[in-house]
């Protein structure tokens, strides 16, 4: 195996083929002909000593070896592309691109106000904030797509590989429409909530696990009629038009109840507080943040100090 002899253009092609799934599309992205693309794939397989993908009616399907190689190629290409970005940002510290991911509560509570502050300081900065579940964020973090994330370390991750800075627990609110039968009642238990429809994040997510444990702790039956969705928009629409109950991070619930949104959403008065385990600022331990990314991180940390976890 001579994988260490792979050239940068070969790694770029490999990442493009994995992303596009078709030889013609990968060739177009690389600005080469299809015969040249076929030769490049053959050269890669000759160097690694294994077949890495097969062609079917829909394009190319990567095998286990190909998936490992493509993931590494994607990270190498991303790091090389970051060289030019870092050089430009070092020049003035106010230009470039910052890419982060965040769970919904952290995006609303910390990333949003920090992004407004960054925009005022660096109007030409390119800022990308993706809102996804922690599992997705950590997968993309491993692929080198983010400067840092506001999320929870997943079971698939080695905590020793990251710089993990705790933020705080995520307190849950239970949202309903303002005409819901439970709206206005005080000190509700989870047995009061069992008979109603629910819309909640998919099973296995931190919020789902926390809510399921809360029902168990109250010795209440878990609701029988549940819709699972990670979409805030679908959840909000369902809650506003039905008697369904939805758990939201407190920061998100407060946003949905704002008068200017006119969503007519209220939160239930629960007998006890329910919170999801703490989320964190997570960076690769060996990451060298660009000046702009470091500026954005500092703004987020300042916001955490200002409002508290």
Annotate the secondary structure layout.
Blueprint: H1 8-20, H2 23-30, H3 34-48, E1 53-56, E2 59-62, H4 64-92, E3 97-102, H5 104-121, E4 126-131, H6 134-142, E5 148-151, E6 162-177, H7 190-193, E7 198-200, H8 206-217, E8 226-228, H9 232-241, E9 246-249, H10 250-256, E10 265-267, E11 275-284, H11 291-307
Parallel strand pairs: 3-4, 3-5, 7-8
Antiparallel strand pairs: 1-2, 5-11, 6-9, 6-10, 6-11
List keywords for this structure.
seven-stranded mixed sheet; 3 domains; globular; two-stranded antiparallel ribbon; 11 helices; 11 strands; Arc Repressor Mutant, subunit A; D-Maltodextrin-Binding Protein, domain 2; alpha/beta; 309 residues
Structural commentary:
It is a single chain. The chain has three domains: 3-79, Orthogonal Bundle (Arc Repressor Mutant, subunit A); 93-168 and 278-307, Periplasmic binding protein-like II (D-Maltodextrin-Binding Protein, domain 2, 3-Layer(aba) Sandwich), CATH 3.40.190; 171-276, D-Maltodextrin-Binding Protein, domain 2 (3-Layer(aba) Sandwich), CATH 3.40.190.10. The mean pLDDT is 89. It is built from eleven helices and eleven strands. Helix 1 packs across helix 4, helix 5 crosses helix 10 (250-256) and helix 5 crosses helix 11 (291-307). With 309 residues, it is α/β, with parallel strands linked by helices. The chain starts with 7 loop residues before the first helix and ends with a helix. The strands form three sheets. Strands 3, 4, 5, 6, 9, 10 and 11 form a seven-stranded mixed β-sheet that branches. The chain has a two-stranded antiparallel sheet with strand order 1-2. Strands 7-8 form a two-stranded parallel ribbon.
